[in-house]
Amino acid sequence: MAEQPWGQPYPVRPQQQSYGQPWQPAHTPQSAMRASHTDRDRTVDVLKAAFAEGRLSREEYGQRFDAAYKAQTYGQLAQLVADLPAGPMVAPFGAAAAVLPPAFGPAPLPMPLPPRPVNGMAITSLALGVLSLPTLGAAGLGAVITGHIAKAQIRARGDEGAGPATIGLVLGWLSLGGWVLLFLLAGFGVLD
To answer: What would the pLDDT profile of 57-86 be if each residue is shown by its tens digit?
Structure first.
């Protein structure tokens, strides 16, 4: 037995070479390092998954669960999951971890969606609506027509541009309303 820095003895196990599977822990100096609560929780997660998959009986799960929360070192935690396939192994920070090749190659990345085009009629409607306001010109009628066409195309094709089409429609209808009001006031002789 060797002595710890504070004078109490602790058992020293001889270094052993592991010739097992890549996921089985090797007895290294890191296996004697003290484990944290998070490390214990990770080990319990592996045990829960193994129990759910039917790899552990209820009794084995209970025993290992209790042992995981009583474990003091990485080596003790690693022994609890050594016979379980591919689980997150507890290892101290900075220790080299065994990397297993994926069973079917690397996981494919999701394909990015192409950006949806902005409807040209919506932009035209917005431009005509803006031009129709200061002059109360006939551009308002064009803004309304192109705005409705743009809305129909956006619904049918799934294009972008609903906002500009709506703004163009509102400005166009305001312009047309101004023309109607102007003609009504002129017809009743109010403008004379």
So the answer is: 889 888 988 998 898 888 888 888 888 865
DSSP state of 6: T
What one-character-per-residue DSSP string does 35-60 give?
P-HHHHHHHHHHHHHHHHTTSS-HHH
Asked whether residue 6 is domain-assigned, the answer is no
Distance from C-alpha of 136 to C-alpha of 182, rounded to nearest angstrom: 10
Residue with tokens 């166009």: 172
The whole-angstrom separation of Cα 82 and Cα 104 is: 23
For residue 105, being part of any structural domain is answered with: no
**What is the Cα–Cα distance from 39 to 76, expressed in whole angstroms?**
11
pLDDT per residue as tens digits for the range 118-170: 999 999 999 999 988 776 667 888 999 999 999 999 999 888 999 999 999 99
